[in-house]
Amino acid sequence: MFCYQCEQAANGGCSKIGVCGKKPEVAALQDLLVYGLKGIAFWANEARKAGKKDAEIDRFMIEGLFTTVTNVDFDAEAIAKILRKSGTILTKAKNLAGSVSGAIPQAAQWQPAADTAGLIQQGEAHGVKSEAIDPDVQSMQDTLVYGMKGYAAYADHALILGAENDEIYAFTHKALAATLDKSLGLMDFVTLAMECGRINLVTMELLNKAHTDAYGHPVPTPVQLGTKAGKAILVTGHDLKMLEELLNQTEGKGINIYTHGEMLPAHGYPGLKKYAHLAGNFGGAWQDQAKEFVNFPGAIIFNTNCIQRPADSYKDRLFTWGLVQWPDVKHVDGWDFSAVINKALECDGFPDAPGKEILTGFGHNAVLGVADKVIDAVKAGQIKHFFLIGGCDGAKSGRNYYTEFAEKAPKDTVILTLACGKYRFNKLDFGDIGGIPRLLDVGQCNDAYSAIQIAVALAGAFKCDVNDLPLSMILSWYEQKAVAILLTLLHLGIKNIKLGPTLPAFITPNVLNFLVENFNIGPITTAEQDLKQILG
After folding, report:
1. In which residue ranges of the chain is pLDDT below 50?
2. Which residues, at least 6 apart from 156, have a Cβ–Cβ distance to it below 8 Å?
3. How far is 335 from 340, CA to CA, in rounded Å?
4. Rounded to the nearest 5 degrees, what angle is found at the Cα of 62, between the Cα atoms of 446 and 94?
């Protein structure tokens, strides 16, 4: 195996077993799925040139890409099932396209092997890297594909809420098909990567609208970190619709629902916070689940990526849902959560133990609602600078930088944060500036859309470019959604981004030089040095 799509990739790429826990056979199956999706994309793109499209093909592409995102599906048999379906989808796309001119790529003629062992063997022949491709072209192709995997996650969440955008599907087919075109060069893939950033913005906007149409705009909300007496279920992941369904099915049953990880922002939505048994938030970011879940006396369910190898001490209380799967962990198909509820009722539950409260719910609607106060505070010199400190958290060393940066940011600065990187500092007390909290939790990683809207609105108010604002972006990355968001920021022309804790292994020196020369993107150093450089 070889995999370098996440920040924690060992020695430039995991080659024996994934740091995430992915086994070689799963890596091979995921590589084969991406290969198969490229073949489907070739035919679907040709069909679209003739004005023909198919909803099943479009949606399969999104689900297939999301399945290969880090920490989603570790179950070889589950991926093999998807691969067998991909053969049917490829035939359907080929029939939809009809006859085409020119050479047909091998991926467009692929069909899955009859059994899982055969699929693994096929996957081993279609790994991530190829010596036949120029390393810089390979780098940009991988950046493009990883960005697409990232927005596929957001598109899947939106689709679950009934929202989709054909522009996303059209680009997915076009871009994946382009990776099979040997006539394309480096700048062609740079252009596609920038367009991927635009499509991710479209996708995040779609998901934002789906969330707010369903649950209202987030409002600043205190979230309890302690516990309420009663049985308990912990929900971790990103999907709000699944949380809503669980809240409906547990109402009146004496079961309290707790959020974990990227589910924390759910407390800010009026349509979800109305449930009295949405009790609080338990634990921190995804990488601490093994040491935290053992202390959760109830059922636990994953509704999207971030799962890691479960410990035996809580495995019997663990469930997965949606595209997330782990071998020998109970999977919930559909919307009936009775098995999860019954397990929670069997467990001890929590005593009443109130704790600290933290704030969430500072989406763009809430922040722009007090924009006049923010602008006045800037003009009066009370707010000197804004920092967006956000992104993925992870277990790899070096991430204490983000805690130190937040702690050492001057008292006359405001910190915007989003995604699970916030857990590095969101329990600290930063105080306020004239009633404006210094720490504003914008939401999940997809709520980078809200952060962008805030930045654009501030630039409009001060009649300047976003890059001229007293705003600095200090980003942490781990998996492919962070890649998609970075491409969005580059598409928007945002410069001077600091990225860490390490730069992506799939970025070659030449590609890095391109990013430095055009966007002044650079690695983090130390909190002290970076603050000094930014603030002077």
Report:
1. none
2. 62, 63, 66, 322, 323
3. 11
4. 155
